[in-house]
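Go through this fold for my students:
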Amino acid sequence: MHKRQSIGKSAVFCIIKEISKSYLGLLISVFEQYYKC
């Protein structure tokens, strides 16, 4: 049970990391659009 919990926690952390990465990429692309115009 404890092993499953730790795996779930790391999976959630990885998902959050991926979301934050894509969110950051989205922000950067938006800023690039504004500053290139």
In short: The chain has a mean pLDDT of 83. DSSP finds one helix and no strands in the chain. The first helix runs from residue 2 to 36. Residues 4 and 18 are 21 Å apart (CA to CA).
